[in-house]
Amino acid sequence: MRTASLGLVTLILAVNVLSVRAWIHPGILHKLSDISRMSSYITAGLAGTNSPQYQDYLLFAADKFSSDAYQMSTPVATLTSRASFEADATAAYQNALMWKLTGIQLHAAKSISIMNAWSGTLKSVDPNYLDMQLASSLGPFMMTNAAEIIRYTSAGWTASGISSFSSMLNNVFYPRLNNHTGVQYQANVGTGNTKALMAFGVFTENTTMYNEAISLYSNEKCSGLALDISATGQSSESGRDQGHVQLGLGNLAESCQIAWLQGTNDLFSLLSNRLLTGYEYTAKYNLGNTVAYDATFQRCDANLLGGPFNVISTTGRGTFRPIYELAYAHYVSLGGLSMPFSLQIINKVGTEEGNTSPADGSGWGTLKYRL
Ligand SMILES: *[C@@H]1O[C@H](CO)[C@@H](O)[C@H](O)[C@H]1NC(C)=O
Ligand SMILES: *[C@@H]1O[C@H](CO)[C@@H](O)[C@H](O)[C@H]1NC(C)=O
Questions:
Q1: Where is the signal peptide (predicted)?
Q2: Which of 110, 142, 304, 365 is in Cβ range 3.0-4.6 Å of 89 for a Cys bridge?
Q3: Torsion sign across C-alpha atoms 241, 242, 247, 249
Q4: Which residues partner with 147 through β-bridges?
């Protein structure tokens, strides 16, 4: 009896220990082995073996946001616009990667100084600012990628800098992302919020926040996966314009990548690889082909922004956003599936660069994601 109950206690303890999951760091969009893969293409390139990855690195290294001489904006206490923070966040992230890829300390110092300056000053995102959720998601997501790389690569970021950055995520941005009323969390705004929360959860090792984001990916009432992408691959914003459609697809792919890297959830495969179907529908249409359009599939509050839309939009058609390499690497190179239309775009583009609005997504996928 006694032995049996001790055995049971031991079993329960063992199960509890197993359920405490180890976080992977750095572990938002890139783990160390991913950065080593990028480095190996660079080393080979410098030694004379060219590759698309190396060509993309040369463009990345020459980009203004990768420069250790990047001039940051003057941080403010209350965000009432997005552009300055988003540019600075992009520079922090690209300098963080440059630091790890080149070992040049000036890049780490630039990234750290941007993060410290903002987290030491910013107190709030104006709740009356129309884009308060985009301001709390897109730029902060990029800056959290910087923070994650810098923190776990012996770059010299102080404990107080890290703690101040964590406070900014929890006290400035999280409250804005924790609002699901009215027009919040719709379409691309919702998918951006979800990827940001997932990144914040990894950086702060907050399992509650991370799991909340995983659940929102499928179940958010206006941006859960099945509401963003129909079974045919149509986006809830296909009638609006092709830029916002691609922004949303990229957001979803980045969330999938985080959960895949952390090894917690295979979001890529949900609903029979619904995200792949979404990419292919949008790639096919943007390459000039005809696709079926279902006017009953619209975003929540379909009357916003000139909707509901009775036909698919030609606005932005053929302007390819830098989102295709990430999904292709996962589904095709790793998973053996087929994405013929996305591949056509990848081949046309050659070397994927950054976004015109720099914090719209990680970009530079030929360097970052191509295997
Ligand atoms: C949530 O968003 C709505 C607008 O959709 C706004 O009226 C409300 O003040 C916000 N609530 C909080 C707590 O920020
Ligand atoms: C973790 O995240 C939740 C929101 O998901 C928040 O309420 C909580 O305060 C966070 N915990 C810590 C220790 O920051």
A1: 1-22
A2: 142
A3: positive
A4: none
CA distance 52 to 295: 40
Residue 124, strand partner residues: 78
Q: How far, in Å, is the centroid of ligand 1 from the Cα of 178?
A: 9
pTM above 0.90, yes or no: yes
127 CA distance to ligand 1 centroid (A)? 7
Half-sphere exposure of 141 toward its Cβ, with a 13 Å CA cutoff?
Answer: 27
- Cα separations in angstroms, 85 against 7, 118, 266: 56, 8, 31
Q: State which of 136, 173, 184 you would mutate to test the pocket of ligand 1, scoring each by most atoms of that ligand within 8 A of its C-beta.
A: 184
The confidence score (pLDDT) of residue 351 equals: 98
Name the residue at shortest CA distance from atom 1 of ligand 1: 179
Decide if 146 contacts 162 (C-beta within 8 A).
no
Q: Given this model, what pLDDT does residue 16 score? A: 46
Q: Judge if the beta carbon of residue 181 lies within 6 A of ligand 1.
A: yes
Q: Say whether 79 sits in a helix, a strand or coil.
A: strand
User: Residues 198, 199, 200, 204: what is their CA dihedral angle, to the nearest 10 degrees?
Assistant: 110
What ligand has the least distance to the C-alpha of 216? 2
Which residue lies with its CA nearest to atom 4 of ligand 2? 209
Cα–Cα dist 207/204, whole Å: 9
CA distance 120 to 245: 35
Output the residue whose Cα is nearest ligand 1's atom 5: 182
Residue 182 CA to residue 42 CA, distance in Å, equals: 48
At 99 the pLDDT is 98
Q: Within the chain, which residues score under 50 in pLDDT? A: 1-18
CA of 27 to the centre of ligand 2 (A): 19
pLDDT for the residue numbered 4? 46
User: How many whole angstroms separate alpha carbon 191 and alpha carbon 213?
Assistant: 10
Q: Could you tell me the distance, in angstroms and rounded to a whole number, from the CA of residue 130 to the centre of ligand 1?
A: 10
Nearest CA to ligand 1 atom 11: 179
pLDDT of residue 131: 97
